[in-house]
Every structure is written in C-alpha cells, then in structure tokens.
C-alpha cells in the first residue's frame, strides 16, 4: 500500500492515538466514528457547491450561453453567493401550513441523505461502517425520502405542492423497483450485500479485460438501467415532473423559502451523489483501477474521478433531454424498466450458471440485445403517433 | 435488566402508537405510525436482527406508510375533520383491549418461557439467511411470492374504476 | 425483569393499542393502522424470542419475521384497495355508516 493511498486512514489513526491520551477508553468508538463522519460532512457539501457551479456552467454551454461568470473568476464563487442569499432571505411559513411537519421535512431529508453515506466505500479501508447488509441499508434509509417529500408537499397546504408531492411519490415508488432490481444482479454475482465486499469482487485481474461489472453484458445493461432509475429517483430532468417549474411551479417545495429551501436543494444533491457513488461502487469497480498498472493512483482519487464522470453524465442528460409526460413516465417504468430489469436478473443467473468461456458472452449479449429490442419496440408501438387533440380551459 | 436504550425505544414506539390511534387528522396518524415502524426497526437492530430491521424499514416505511398516505389522500381523509373519532361503543373496545393486556401481562409474568436463563447472544449472517431462504424455506418463499403477486393483481382489480355506481 | 420480558411487555402493549384502535375508531384507515400495529407486535415477539429464547435452529425466528413482514405488505395493499373501493361506492370511510350487510 502506498502512503498516499492510505493517507486519510493513517491520519485518522494518528488523531485517534492523540485522543486516546486525553479521553477515557469508553469514548474511543465514538471518537473514531466522529473522525470518519466529519470529513464526509465537509467533503460532500463542498462537492455540492462544486456540482452546482459545474451544472450551471455545463448547462450554459449546452444552451449556448456562458453561465455564471460574475462572482469570482469564472463565476467560481457563485455557490457562495447563492448560499449567502439563501441564508439571509426571509423564512416564510404559510399561515395554513402544518408547522411541525413543514419544519421537519427539510431536516429529515438532509439527515437521511447524509445517513446513507455511512456504508459507501470511498477508498481502500475508507468506509464508516462495513455493514453486512450495506446495500439493504442504503435502500432502507433512502426510502424515507419518499415520506419526507410527501410531508413537505402535504404540510404546505398548497395544491401545487400536494400535486408535486403525489407525482414525486408515485414516481419514486415506481422507479425504486427497477433501481433495486438492477442492483440485484450485482448481489447475485458478487454473492454479498456488503459494499466493500462488492468492490473487492471487482479487483483488477491480470487479463486484458477489466473486472468491473459494467464490462459484462448484464452489467452494462444493469448500469444503464440503474442510471435511468437513479435519474428518476433524484427527480432530475427528463424525469423532473414533480418539480416542473413550467407546470406546477417547482412542486413540493414551492412553499419553502430561505434556508429551508437551501436544505431541500442540498438534500436532493446529496442523494444524487449518494446514488451515483452507489452506481460507481456496484458497476464501475468502486475505488479500483481498471488494470493492475493503474493501482499506483490512490484509490480515493479513482473513486472521485468516477463519481465526477457519472455526475457529468447526469448534467449532460439534463441539458439534452426534454421532460416526459406523466403517462409516458409511468409507461416507461412499468412496461420497459421493470421487465427489462427482471430479464436482466435471469441473464445474470445464466451468466453465473454457464460458467466461463465465450459461450456465455454470446448467449448473454444476445439475450440482452434481444430483450432490449423486443421491449423497446413494444413500447414504441404503444406510443404510435396519434392525431393530437387539445382541450382548453373553459 | 432493562437498559436505557430499550426504555427510550419503548417510549418512542408507545407514544407513536398512541398518537397513531388518537390523532384527529388522518395524515398525522400515518406519520405517527411511520414513527412506530422506525422505532420497531431500531428495536430489531438492538436485538441483533440487522437484516430484519432494514427489511422492516424498507417495507413498512417505504411501502406500507406510503400506501396509507395514498389511501388517505384518495379518500379525502386529510381534509374533512371527523365529527366523532370513536364508535358509539368505544368503551367496550377499550375494555377488551385492557382485558387482553391484563391477560398477556399475567401470562408473561407467570410463564417460565419469558424468563429464560441468560444465554449467549445469537448471531446470524446475511449469508445464513440467504441459504435458508433458498434451501429450507424455499417453499415458503415461493408461496409468499405467489401471494404477493395475487395481492398485487387483486389490489389493482379492486381499486380499478369500473364506472360502477358513484 | 429480564430483557425478554421487557420486549414481550412492549409487544403486548403495542398489540392492545392496535386492538383497541381496530375496535373503536370509526375510520377504516385507522382500523387498518391498528391491524398493522398488532402484526408488528407479533413480529417483535418473534425477534425477541429468537434472540433470548431457546432456539434449535438459528435462523427460524428471523425467517418467520421476514415472511410476516412480506405478508403484512400484501395485507396492507389489499386492505387499502378495499378501503378505496368502499369509498368509491359509499363516499365515506366511516365504518359505522357502511352497514348494508346488517339488512
């Protein structure tokens, strides 16, 4: 192990040894946990600021404009300006709102968004807790977000907020199924629910083909399905109906202002980072390099590079695709995503069962492509161009 | 040996349960019952059943509570304040509940099974659970799958709008 | 009081709260919530006995609780679908007004 690779782990041990002299023995686990958590509480909000800047710049370029360029060099201080603005704005709570629930929703959202980071491995030996059922933990805690979204929308006593919340909950429930099912393939092949173990199952082999799960037929299909479902879970364009500004004026957090609105914003991005990190861990080899020769680069550098690449993909998608309609959204989830992920589970089982050799490559690739073309064509035929009828408000 | 964490959890669960059945607004009832579900998941974790705890969280908070929310909103339960929360014969219900509790408490007090000698804590890995699901309990797993599919289809058919009497 | 007795008592109280709710509340959804509470109390007993009681096979208690959770999900789905269907028909979820079968 190179020194740089284990730099943060060593730092933590060093700090822990310092504290051991001062604090009683019983506090050791608590201090150890705090030392693991505090860096996360610093790094990810920083990444949030960087992501907002990257997103606004990237979207600007995609839309042929400059993006933020007034505050600081290249507009780099724009997130700081936004943060100050959010902090000094008046915090308005509607008179009819359910005050307790209204206050609780953003707090819970950010808390749960941070909680899921506990099981993600950010580098070699860099995980807060190595839970045996880590993947289950991730989804179990992440599912609280659905209830939180509902709480935010309902407690605002605003029809747009309630509509947005119901849209969001229906969408998150529908896309949670393919999200979980697409990760089941990885669990089947790796044989474990623990995320560090899944990363170890993708250690670079000596051959010329990387051992990442994305470089297998089921893994490639699973990764794409995972990204689509994650995009929908994060309520991002093209699945941003719950927040569509032009139809329901920002959806469930319309009645939030100032700091609470900033918390919602932060919570959404934190869960986006978490689900991207999960995708990196499950399919892109986590903190592993593709080849043994690449292992000299520290593991956490690999991890964050991959994370940034996935985030760039999300920004690109957001800038490129138009928003779906509600029925298209549901059709896509139930008629394409769920059957496709179910077939993918079967393909992964076949992959495991056939053993090794070129036969399994042929069979599994043919099945993936066949299933995709069949399901995709079925979906396209269902959505044949129809003469459109317009209804106007009377 | 009743410990502090247990008392906190028990208080959380019981307060949540009482709130869930006493609140006037149905959405508050559902949120309170979600608190009970989370508290129970924490209790399972404390008992060393990690897998069941997370499964409880995933299924009860993520699915059942959301289902309850949808049912409340689809029946407009969140808007109309109810005139009377309880049925006319509510004191009978409370009496029966109290009687059942007295019986259970007496049984727990008397039964030797409730006071076992302290044993070494059990540890079960996820792998053991998976193996058991695929070997010894595979029939139960299949039947549960069938039941869930039937429930899914049944729920869709029952709740489908058939244009009947409105 | 042993830890097991503590958990059993907690489950008993939870069960009785659920029972009282199912017997007394007028709204069908709260009745369903009461039933869910009773199911959860039973589950808590399974896990408590698994941890503290005598166990011939180490995973049996866990299995029972897992299957109970799965079946409770099915029960909730069907129960709430029934509530919605009843609401469509009678425009109410008040159990005391839905008494057609009494004749």
Question: Count the helices of chain C. How many?
Answer: 3
Number of domains of chain C: 1
Shape of chain C: elongated
User: Largest inter-chain interface?
Assistant: B-C, 89 and 75 residues
Largest sheet of chain A: none
What are the low-pLDDT stretches of chain C, counting only 5+ consecutive residues below 50? none
Note the gap between the termini of chain C: 51 Å
Task: State the end-to-end distance of chain A.
Answer: 72 Å
| pLDDT < 50 runs, ≥5 residues of chain A | none
List keywords for this structure.
heterotrimer, A: 394 residues, mainly alpha, 14 helices, B: 166 residues, 2 domains, 0% strand
Give a description of the structure.
The complex is a heterotrimer of chains A (394), B (166) and C (103). With 394 residues, chain A is mainly alpha-helical. Chain A has 14 helices and no strands. Chain A has one domain (7-382). Chain A has helices at residues 7-22, 28-62, 78-88, 99-115, 134-142, 144-155, 159-190, 195-200, 217-233, 245-248, 258-283, 299-320, 326-354, 358-382. The longest helix of chain A has 35 residues, at 28-62. The model of chain A has no long low-confidence stretch (mean pLDDT 83). Chain B is mainly alpha-helical and 166 residues long. Chain B has two domains: 1-82, NADH-ubiquinone/plastoquinone oxidoreductase chain 6, subunit NuoJ (Four Helix Bundle (Hemerythrin (Met), subunit A)); 122-160. In chain B, 70% of the residues lie in helices and 0% in strands. Chain B contains six helices and no strands. Chain B has helices at 4-22, 26-46, 50-74, 90-110, 126-134, 138-159. The model of chain B has no long low-confidence stretch (mean pLDDT 82). With 103 residues, chain C is mainly alpha-helical. Chain C has one domain: Helix Hairpins (Orthogonal Bundle), CATH 1.10.287. Chain C is built from three helices and no strands. Chain C has helices at residues 3-24, 28-52, 60-90. The longest helix of chain C has 31 residues, at 60-90. Chain C is elongated. Chains B and C meet through helix 1, helix 2, helix 3, helix 4 and helix 5 of B and helix 1, helix 2 and helix 3 of C.
């Amino acid at each position: 192990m190179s020194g740089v690779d284990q730099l943060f782990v060593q730092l933590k041990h060093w700090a822990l040894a310092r504290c051991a002299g001062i604090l009683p023995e019983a506090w050791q686990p608590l201090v150890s946990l705090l030392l693991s958590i505090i860096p996360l509480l610093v790094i990810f909000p920083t990444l949030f600021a960087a992501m907002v800047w990257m997103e606004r710049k990237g979207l600007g370029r995609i839309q042929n404009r400059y993006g933020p360029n007034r505050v600081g060099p290249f507009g780099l201080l724009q997130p700081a300006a936004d943060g100050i603005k959010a902090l000094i704005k008046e915090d308005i709570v509607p008179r009819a709102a359910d005050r307790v629930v209204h206050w609780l929703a953003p707090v819970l959202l950010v808390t749960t968004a941070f909680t899921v980071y506990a099981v993600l491995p950010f580098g070699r030996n860099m995980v807060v807790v190595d839970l045996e059922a880590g993947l289950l933990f991730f989804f179990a805690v992440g599912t609280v977000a659905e209830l939180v979204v509902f709480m935010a929308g309902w407690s605002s006593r605003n029809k747009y907020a309630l509509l947005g919340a119901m849209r969001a909950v229906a969408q998150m429930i529908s896309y949670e199924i393919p999200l979980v099912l697409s990760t089941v393939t990885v669990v089947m092949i790796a044989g474990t629910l623990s995320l560090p173990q899944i990363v170890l199952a993708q250690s670079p082999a000596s051959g010329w083909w990387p051992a990442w799960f994305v470089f297998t037929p089921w893994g490639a299909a699973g990764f794409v399905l995972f990204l689509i479902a994650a995009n929908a879970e994060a309520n991002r364009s093209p699945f941003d109906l719950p927040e569509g500004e032009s139809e329901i004026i920002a959806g469930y957090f319309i009645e939030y202002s100032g700091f609470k609105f900033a918390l919602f914003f932060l919570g959404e991005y934190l869960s986006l980072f978490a689900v991207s990190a999960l995708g990196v861990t499950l399919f892109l080899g986590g903190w592993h390099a593709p080849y043994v020769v690449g292992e000299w680069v520290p593991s956490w550098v690999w991890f964050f590079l991959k994370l940034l690449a996935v985030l760039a993909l999300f920004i690109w998608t957001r800038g490129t695709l138009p928003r779906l309609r509600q029925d298209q959204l549901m059709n896509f989830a139930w008629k394409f995503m769920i059957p496709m992920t179910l077939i993918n589970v079967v393909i992964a089982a076949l992959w495991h069962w056939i053993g090794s050799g070129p036969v399994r490559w042929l069979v599994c690739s043919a099945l993936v492509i066949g299933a995709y073309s069949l399901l995709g064509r079925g979906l396209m035929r269902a959505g044949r161009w129809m003469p459109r009828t317009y209804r106007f408000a009377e | 040996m009743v410990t502090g964490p247990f008392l906190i959890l028990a208080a959380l669960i019981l307060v949540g349960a009482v709130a869930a059945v006493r609140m006037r607004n149905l959405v508050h009832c559902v949120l309170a019952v979600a608190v009970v579900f989370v508290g129970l998941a924490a209790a399972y974790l404390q008992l060393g059943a990690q897998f069941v705890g997370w499964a409880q969280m995933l299924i009860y908070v993520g699915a059942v509570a959301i289902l309850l929310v949808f049912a409340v909103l689809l029946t407009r339960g969140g808007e109309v304040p109810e005139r009377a929360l309880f049925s006319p014969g509510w004191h009978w219900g409370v009496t029966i509940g109290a009687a059942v509790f007295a019986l259970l408490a007496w049984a727990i007090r008397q039964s030797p099974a409730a006071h076992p000698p302290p044993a070494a804590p059990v540890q079960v890995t996820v792998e053991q659970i998976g193996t058991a699901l695929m070997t010894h309990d595979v029939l139960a797993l299949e039947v549960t799958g069938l039941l869930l599919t039937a429930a899914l289809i049944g729920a869709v058919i029952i709740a489908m709008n058939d244009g009947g009497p409105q | 009081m042993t830890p097991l007795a503590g958990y059993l008592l907690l489950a008993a109280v939870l069960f009785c709260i659920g029972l009282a709710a199912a017997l007394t509340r007028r709204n069908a959804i709260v009745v369903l919530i009461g039933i869910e509470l009773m199911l959860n109390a039973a589950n808590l007993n399974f896990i408590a006995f698994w941890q503290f009681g005598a166990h011939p096979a180490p995973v049996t208690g866990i299995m029972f609780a897992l299957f109970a959770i799965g079946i409770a999900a099915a029960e909730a789905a069907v129960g709430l679908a029934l509530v919605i269907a009843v609401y469509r028909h009678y425009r109410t979820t008040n159990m005391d007004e839905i008494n057609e079968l009494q004749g």
